[in-house]
Design a protein that fits this description.
CATH topology of the largest domain: Immunoglobulin-like
Number of strands: 10
Shape: elongated
CATH class of the largest domain: Mainly Beta
Structural class: alpha+beta
Helix content: 10-25%
Number of helices: 1
Strand content: 25-35%
Radius of gyration: 27 Å
Oligomer: single chain
Largest sheet: 10 strands, mixed
Number of domains: 2
Order of helices and strands: HEEEEEEEEEE
Length: 191
C-alpha cells in the first residue's frame, strides 16, 4: 500500500477551503452572538405597559385623557394570582388616586367596569408618559403609564365625562377565573 504525500497546491487548496468554511460559519452565527434575541426580552406589545406587583399582574395599563390638567381614566387588566382578595391603589399627579379591588384568583378589566378608575388630574398631555405609584398591601412601586386621547377611535369611549367622579373606586368588577394562574395576553383587555 502506497501513501502519497500532498503536494503544496493541494495543501493550499485544503487550507483555503477550511478558511472559507470557518468564515461562512462565523457569518451565519455572528448575528445571534452580537445582537440580543428579541424573543428573550419581555415587552409590552400593545399601547399600555405591563407590571407585576406582589400577587397582582397589571397588563396593558394606560391613561385616557384630553389634557394634562383634566381627569384621566385608567384602563387595562389586573390579575390576582393569590388566594386572597387584593386592592390596587393607583396614585397620580396632584394627589389623584383610584382604588381597584380584585378578587382572589380572578381578574378585573378596567375597560369593562361600570365604576371607572378615574384620576382627577392626568399629569401629562396625550402622547406623554406620566409617573404613577401603584400599591397593593406593603408592595409599592413608581411606574410610567402612557397617556392617550381619542385619536384612536377605540379609545374615544373611555374619555372621562363630566359625570365621572374623580378618585372613583372600582367595585364588583372582578370576573371569576377557574385557572389558578391566569395567563394574560394583550388581546384579553378587549382592545
Amino acid at each position: 500500500m502506497r501513501i502519497t504525500a500532498m503536494n503544496r497546491v493541494q495543501r493550499g487548496k485544503l487550507a483555503m477551503a477550511a478558511a472559507a468554511i470557518g468564515i461562512g460559519l462565523l457569518s451565519v452565527t455572528g448575528c445571534g452572538y452580537i445582537n440580543p434575541q428579541q424573543t428573550n426580552q419581555q415587552y409590552s406589545p400593545s399601547d399600555g405597559v405591563r407590571e407585576d406587583l406582589g400577587s397582582l399582574q397589571l397588563r396593558n395599563m394606560l391613561i385616557i385623557s384630553t389634557d394634562a390638567n383634566k381627569p384621566g381614566r385608567v384602563i387595562g387588566a389586573v390579575f390576582n394570582t393569590s388566594s386572597s382578595d387584593a386592592t390596587l391603589t393607583i396614585s397620580g399627579a396632584g394627589g389623584s388616586q383610584a382604588t381597584i379591588p380584585v378578587k382572589a384568583k380572578s381578574q378585573t378589566y378596567l375597560n369593562d367596569t361600570t365604576d371607572a378608575a378615574i384620576l382627577s388630574t392626568t399629569g401629562g398631555a396625550p402622547g406623554s408618559v406620566v409617573s404613577v405609584t401603584i400599591k397593593t398591601g406593603s408592595d409599592s412601586r413608581t411606574v410610567q403609564f402612557p397617556v392617550l386621547d381619542a385619536s384612536l377611535k377605540e379609545y374615544a369611549k373611555y374619555l372621562p365625562t363630566a359625570s365621572a367622579s374623580p378618585s372613583a373606586s372600582v367595585s364588583g368588577s372582578a370576573t371569576s377565573s377557574s385557572s389558578a394562574t391566569p395567563t394574560p395576553s394583550a388581546s384579553s383587555t378587549g382592545h
